Amino acid sequence: MMGFWRRRNWMTLAAISGFIAVAVGAFAAHGVSDPRAQELLKTGAMYGFMHSMATFACATFMQVGARRARFAPAFFLSGVLLFSGSLYAMALGAPRWLGAVTPIGGLCFLTGWAILAWAARGVDPV
What separation in angstroms does the CA of 49 have from each of 42, 93, 124? Predict the structure, then answer.
């Protein structure tokens, strides 16, 4: 893989994303009293962490022959930025219209998973 999207770069971003997800989850549990803000933060943290781990899984996919998995991290990490980021921002007081960005992040997640399903077809070909 050439350029910025080398495996080590997206794995580094996935680790940072996982760190942020844990920190936000802790903040939601211990630093926020508003139930709606807590819900937004917890949802964003859960999806952010889940897709950080999915990004790491892409490295395993690639090692077992699913080279097309290299395309999924860009979608997973973009999804974290758009989906989780918009929820975090709204929980912290950003205007509610920012919620229009959230489904775009969800589509990025779905695209990443579809790519992994496509990539899995390259493992143990008959």
Answer: 10, 22, 29
pLDDT in tens, 33-81: 999 999 999 999 999 999 999 999 998 888 888 889 999 999 999 999 9
* H or E element, residue 63: helix 35-63
What DSSP letter does each residue of 76-108 carry, written as one string?
HHHHIIIIIHHHHHHHTT--GGGGGTHHHHHHH
Instruction: Return the sign of the alpha-carbon dihedral for residues 88, 80, 23, 10.
Output: negative
Residue 30: which H helix or E strand, with range? helix 7-30
**Tens digit of each residue's pLDDT (9 = 90 or more) over 62-71:** 888 888 999 9
> What are the sequence ranges of the domains in the chain?
7-120
> How many residues are given for the chain?
126
